[in-house]
Amino acid sequence: MRHTGPVVAVLMLFGLLAAAASGEETNAAAKIVVSSSPAASTVGLRLVEGVMTFRGQRYLLTMRGAEGATAAVGSVSNLSRVRDIEGVYRIANGELRNDAGVRLRFDPPLALQAGEVQIEIASRIYPKVSTGQGNSVE
């Protein structure tokens, strides 16, 4: 059984690749909750609001191009900087992708007016958490 070393190495490689692939799909970098109704309309595209949670912070997003009343939860992958969420997302392989490589999957899927959605950060939502500066409760 001299050849077990290469076989074990190949099996370990397949195991690592499978774990990486499954982790990539299930471990979202952020989550977006989209409101149930359009906030406004701008130049023919409906403006829908969403709240993204990323690294313990919440951000208000504006999304142009969602069709009709919408209520969905999205998982965000390949997001390393909050500003990379911004951009135009187009459908690719059953998910939405922007030029920065960020991927979105909504459940239920968003209906898009022109086959794309534009996302911008409107503001950061500051959590109402005590910083402990003279407000400690004992």
Offer a quick outline of the entry.
With 138 residues, the chain is α+β, with helices and mostly antiparallel strands.
Compile the SSE list and pairings.
Layout: H1 4-26, E1 30-34, E2 40-42, E3 45-54, E4 57-64, E5 72-77, E6 87-92, E7 95-97, E8 103-107, E9 116-125
Overview of this protein structure:
This protein is an alpha+beta fold. The protein has one domain (28-125). It contains 1 helix and 9 strands. An 8-stranded antiparallel beta barrel has the order 1-3-4-9-6-7-8-5. A hairpin with a 5-residue loop joins strand 7 and strand 8 (103-107). It is globular and about 35 Å long. Residues 4-26 and 134-138 have low confidence and may be disordered.
Give Rg in angstroms.
20 Å
From the helix content, strand content and strand pairing, which structural class follows?
alpha+beta
Average predicted local confidence, pLDDT: 74
Total domain units = 1
**What is the topology, as strand order, of the major beta sheet?**
1-3-4-9-6-7-8-5
Task: Tell me the span between the first and last alpha carbons.
Answer: 67 Å
Flag low-confidence runs.
Answer: 4-26, 134-138
DSSP strand (E) fraction? Answer: 35-45%
- Strand runs, count: 9
Order of helices and strands: HEEEEEEEEE
- Which sheet architecture does the biggest sheet show? 8 strands, antiparallel, barrel
- The percentage helix is 10-25%
Count of alpha and pi helical runs: 1
Shape: globular
